[in-house]
Automatic annotation (TrEMBL):
Keywords: Heme, Iron, Metal-binding, Monooxygenase, Oxidoreductase. It comes from the Bacteria. Signal peptide: none annotated. Belongs to the cytochrome P450 family. This is Cytochrome P450. InterPro entries: Cyt_P450 (IPR001128), Cyt_P450_B (IPR002397), Cyt_P450_CS (IPR017972), Cyt_P450_sf (IPR036396).
Length: 408
């Protein structure tokens, strides 16, 4: 069977939907067509939860797009750009034994034990930032939870993981914002230029850190510098891991923390256990809506024939709203147990930082309930990015209701 092609209007709405209800409607219509769909650009859109899972967990048939794929699909000029080149060297775009070996190097920093050792630090960062944020709202009347709450938490936690000064968190969050464009579908030239500039800044930053030994002995950078030989190899490895960690873990965490605040202010389930509340936020409003895979050979998914070399857009955001996997997917309902969302992907590229990302958000829910529950979101429809991959909240202005002001 050949793939059904959604009409152009639906594909346009998919690319440009600027609110979650509009996007949910697009996903509903895509699910009504088929779990695997065609596109005018000869890729396939995989929308069904079971089909997405199948692609993500079968590395024998589906690989992540590597440098050669980008060259074939986007042309030499784009593949040669510093940002593309930098991101292509990270785990995101490696396959097989090279991927396994490099992932193994980082794994000790992400075990349950390592996470448990980090819990107190994350808890302190989250509580202090929530307190400062509530004070700022009271003092200024309105404050942006993306800039003053989610950004500082995600940036400071990343600094702590890397073992660099918490004063670098502004720099880290700015680099994350600029680099994340590389993983958007068909990024704009102006966005790619920002990502290229960010790579150059990260090279300089890594060089400075190494020269001045401005890193803690228990952080990820010190560990890598012990592990790599020396000189250029060590420098390149530090840059590779900085690019990976910053691209993978900062904007995504900011997005989840901001959408968790929005859910705390607007959605039901406030008395549910924090972990259940967060898992539903992750399903409902995932930071990344799609990942790419390439067919290693001719294959069939959900009855659709797919030729070797085909690019598949695995729509994890759509999978999270698949009615075949989640009863009443449009209802925000903490405590769902039937299926896991694909927000952190699945298979060999399953997110290494999933535990850390969940921990930040769970502690935010607890700290918010204790110290900021009287804050509200001051804008009816806070604006979002409208790429098909990233739909992050751009800002989330919060104000205090009068009971909070009287109590403070
Ligand atoms: C809520 C926040 C986060 C979300 C939604 C998220 C999501 C994802 C997804 C979907 C992938 C897989 C990409 C693929 O299958 O092609 C991934 C990979 C990865 N994530 Fe996360 N991530 C988050 C936070 C983090 C954090 C905080 C870190 C690190 C501190 C991190 C580190 C990584 C790494 C290293 C990979 C690459 C794994 C590999 O390719 O083997 N992530 N993440």
């Amino acid at each position: 069977m050949t793939a059904v092609l959604p009409d152009r209007a639906l594909l346009r709405d998919w690319r440009t939907a600027s609110t979650l209800p509009a996007l949910a409607e697009v996903y509903r219509q895509l699910h009504g067509l088929a779990p695997v769909l065609g596109t005018p650009w000869q890729a396939v859109l995989v929308t069904g939860h079971a089909a997405c899972r199948e692609l993500l967990t079968d590395p024998g048939t589906w690989r992540v797009p590597d440098a050669a794929d980008f060259q074939r699909l986007c042309g030499q000029a784009e593949a040669d750009r510093p940002a593309r080149h930098g991101v292509n060297q990270t785990l995101f775009h490696l396959n097989g034994t090279e991927h396994t070996a490099r992932r193994r190097v980082l794994a000790p920093f992400f075990t349950p034990r390592a996470l448990a050792a980090r819990t107190a630090v994350v808890d302190n960062v989250v509580r202090a930032t929530v307190r400062d944020f509530a004070d700022r709202v009271v003092g200024e009347g309105v404050a942006d939870a993306v800039e003053h709450l989610a950004g500082p938490i995600a940036g400071t936690v990343m600094c702590s993981l890397l073992g660099v000064s918490p004063r670098d968190q502004d720099f880290i969050t700015r680099m994350a914002a600029d680099l994340s464009f590389v993983e958007e579908l068909a990024p704009r030239p102006s966005h790619l230029a920002r990502a290229d500039a960010a790579i150059t800044e990260l090279y300089d930053y890594a060089g400075r850190l190494i020269r001045t030994r401005a890193y803690r002995p228990d952080g990820l950078l010190a560990y890598l510098l012990n592990w790599a030989d020396s000189g250029q190899e060590a420098h390149d490895e530090v840059v590779r891991v900085l690019v990976l960690m910053i691209t993978a873990g900062v904007s995504t965490s900011i997005s989840v923390l901001a959408s968790t605040v929005l859910a705390l202010c607007r959605l039901p389930g406030l008395d549910s256990p924090p972990a259940e509340f967060v898992d539903e936020c992750l399903r409902w409003d995932p930071p990344a809506h799609m990942v790419g895979r390439i067919a290693e050979r001719d294959t069939t998914v959900a009855g659709v024939q797919i030729a070797e070399g085909t690019l598949a857009h695995v729509l994890i955001g759509a999978a999270n709203r698949d009615p075949a996997a989640f009863a009443e997917p449009e209802v925000f309902s903490p405590g769902r147990t039937q299926t896991r969302s694909l927000t952190f992907s699945a298979g060999p590229h399953y997110c290494l930082g999933a535990g850390l990302a969940r921990l930040q958000a769970i502690q935010l829910v607890s700290a918010w309930r204790e110290g900021a529950a009287g804050l509200t979101v001051a804008e009816e429809e806070p604006p979002r990015m409208t790429g098909p991959n990233f739909r992050h909240l751009r800002r989330l202005p919060c104000s205090a209701d009068h009971r909070f002001l009287i109590g403070s």
